[in-house]
Structure formats: C-alpha cells, structure tokens
Amino acid sequence: MTEAAEIEKKMYLPEIVAFHRQDVERRKAEADFAALELAASAHEPRGFARALREKAKTGPAVIAEIKKASPSKGLIRENLDPTALAIELEAAGAAVLSVLTDEPYFQGSLGNLRAARAACKLPLLRKDFMVDPFQVLEARANGADAILLIVAALNDIELRTLREEARRYGLDVLCEVHDAEEVERARALDCECVGVNTRDLKTFHVSLDRAIELSQSLPADVIRVAESGITGREDVQRMRAAGFGAFLIGESLMRAERPGEALKALLS
C-alpha cells in the first residue's frame, strides 16, 4: 500500500464521524418525533445480550453481519437482499444479526434493518456510527435490539449519554474497543457486551494476538466479542480458548456465494 493510500485509510473514522454529526442534525430537524416514539413503543426488544450469552454456553455465538460495502474494501456483496440473508443466516445458526445502517460509507439503510427484523426472530444490532441520542430512538423505532458504541469515535460524556439513552429505551450495547486505553474508558459504561476490534484503526493491521491480550483486561461479567479478522474455524477456536464467547463476522459471510453454508462450515 502506498503512503498516500495509508493516509487516506486513516482518515475514515474522523471523516465518517464528522459526516454523521452533521447528518443527524438534518434528520432531527425533519423528524416526526411523535411517530418515532410511537414506533419505538410498539417494538419489544428481543434481548440481544441474552441471546449471545445463551448461545455461548454451548458453542460460539456468531453475530452475523449484513453488510453490502465498506470504505476500505469497497463493494462486498452487490445484490444484497436483507430479507433473504436474515432468513438464511438464522437457519444456519447465527445467534443474532448485525445490520449496517450507514448509507454513504457502507451502503446500508434503516430499511435493511426493518426488512431483517420482519424476516427473522433473531435480535438485531443497529451497526452505525452513533453520535447523538436521536439515533437511539431511531434504532428502537426501526426494530433494533442493540446499538454499537465505538469508544474511539466518542468522548466520555458522549459515551455515558448514549449508554444511558440505550438503557432508557431498553436496548443493549455492544461497546467497541481497540486498545488498552479504550478498555479502561469502556469499563465505566457497564455495557452488556464489549467487542475487541482486531483491526488497528491507525495501521488497519489485523492482529488476533493483540485482541487476545486485551481480552484479559475486560470485565469478567461482560460478553466478550471478537470483531474483524475471523475467517475460519481455527480463528474461532483460538479466540474461544482466550475467553471470547461471541464473534462478529461479516465480510467472509457476505463474500460467500451461500452465506448460510459458510456460517454452518464455520460453526461445525
């Protein structure tokens, strides 16, 4: 990779977060809050963390991700059908689903979240860049059972505010960390799930060893989630031995011709 390309990659997170801070203000100005609150109250959360914890008792709990594209990898699955994928991944043994709702960078949508919700009985994570409490209301109103909080993207006040808003709406939280400093910041949030992203945000290098090292400092009572770089059964077995009970797997499934078969092979 050229130096220019590496610099471009390093800019993804700041650029994406800045976009969402602006975009959420636009959506708030246009939103029908009464309708969103009504939709949120009609949605009964399915228990994201509970489903992961139960599945992890007998085997790896997979968070199967419905993802069309990413800034670093480009288009991953051209003809993405969230309805068909939700049905297929549920039948293949996924514990829960993660649905990308970021539009400009990952080509996701809240519509994909609603479609997956209607197609299966699994709990759903809204995978997006959460920067404002309004997005938590949006998440529940569109059928999410959990939200993602990326420690690297938020200051401590924002993290606490969003964590409390998730509690208020009855949603679980997957808190994503990348290094030891972020683990310490995450401790104060008392989240149900903590995900260690094996991809370094500065170099984009994936290291399972670094994730295993970080796992030792996670609170004992959280669901430990390994994120990124899990490509096969050997990776899953190694991470389970290190204390991870859940695994967020997206790209390898979405690139497979039959994602359900790929998931079955990984779980076998």
UniProtKB/TrEMBL annotation:
Keyword Amino-acid biosynthesis among UniProt keywords: yes
Domain of life: Bacteria
Enzyme class: lyase
This protein's UniProt keywords: Amino-acid biosynthesis, Aromatic amino acid biosynthesis, Decarboxylase, Lyase, Tryptophan biosynthesis
Pathway linked to the protein: Amino-acid biosynthesis; L-tryptophan biosynthesis; L-tryptophan from chorismate: step 4/5
Enzyme Commission number(s) from the entry: 4.1.1.48
InterPro entries in alphabetical order: Aldolase_TIM (IPR013785), Indole-3-glycerol_P_synth (IPR045186), Indole-3-glycerol_P_synth_dom (IPR013798), Indole-3-GlycerolPSynthase_CS (IPR001468), RibuloseP-bd_barrel (IPR011060)
Gene Ontology MF, one: indole-3-glycerol-phosphate synthase activity
Pfam families: IGPS
Protein name: Indole-3-glycerol phosphate synthase
Species of provenance: Granulicella cerasi
